[in-house]
Amino acid sequence: MKKLALVIAIFLLLHAAGCQTGTSGQYNYLPPERIDDGLDVGTPDEVNMNEKLIAKAANSIQGGRFKEVHAMLIFRHNKLVFEGYFEGHQYQWDAPYHHGNPVNWKRDMPHSIMSATKSITSACIGIAVDKGFIESVQQSIFDYLPQHRHLGTGGKEKITIEHLLTMTSGLEWHEWSAPYSSQANDIVDLWLPSCRDPVACVLEKPLVNKPGTSFTYSGGGTIVLGEILKNAAQMDIEEFSGKYLFEPLAIDSFNWDLKFENGVIEAAGGLKITPRAMVKIGATFLNKGVWKGKQIISEPWVNKSATAFGDNHGINIPGEDSGRNGYSYSWWTKTFSKSGEKIHMYAASGWGGQHIMVLPELNAVVVFTGGNYVTRRPPFKILRKYLIPAFGYSYRK
What we know:
By secondary structure, the protein is an alpha+beta fold. The protein has eleven helices and 15 strands.
């Protein structure tokens, strides 16, 4: 039982200098600092935002209304205009609420982005397609899984890379229907001694739906995508992302240190990066895949990431105060309304309150990190209540 608890703790860890802050008093706004990281900075007023509403959001976070929000950053019109870090806790499995030592979160501290990692894995697949390592997302996954080709039978051979990206593989998978403390949760099962090869354990699941027809949330499918990338590019996702995504974005602090015993990298929830790095990724998608004049990700891939796939609509995310959502190429999609205008959003989202929210009509990116692992996560509420009203009416046309 102790070994099982340790395994579960490892899994839950996977999927899970700035302005001065404190637990009381008013939040003191300071413009983001210009550092040598490629991000231009400004103030809310310069980008037609209501600074008072942003301050209300920051005061509410600092005062504890939203429990564990560790960082909130706002990027608009290609400028970082708000960067706030707050008191919180480091992650610790065996502590109440998974809150370990208290910490003042800061700009240079990497944060586990939990399942927002899936969107980064998707971006790497897109880059691999752009560069010719992968011919097409319409190919069978077994074209790039030579060691597992024997499992491509009984209709599984029709599962494509796109089906894994959109979580429509049709493979049986129980991740949202069982608690993470239960062996009935298939993602937990990957860490048990009985599973020697996580890729095989995913692909051995029975096919219960025709591929492409039904959404089932599956971190296992994203782990398989990581192995596909490794075989296609002859480099694992740690090396690939460093060379083709993080280095071009001048992101030098990233960590894919979570690996299974056989060396397979946990590509569904194991990445740690800083909130400013999250902003850069969001800004690249906002600008149709371009960073500093260089095309990092193709515009068609960005469009696929911004648009719900097929019938992937009306999905309620456990623990999120986000209502119904769509799901695209491993990004969540949603539509808001402001003064009669539709505001589309697509977001990389992870357990505990990790988000890269891209809002094209507002020409904006909003980033959150947090530690609300067992309570409802507030970033969508903060976005609706304070931030969307704070945006001025200079919509991108």
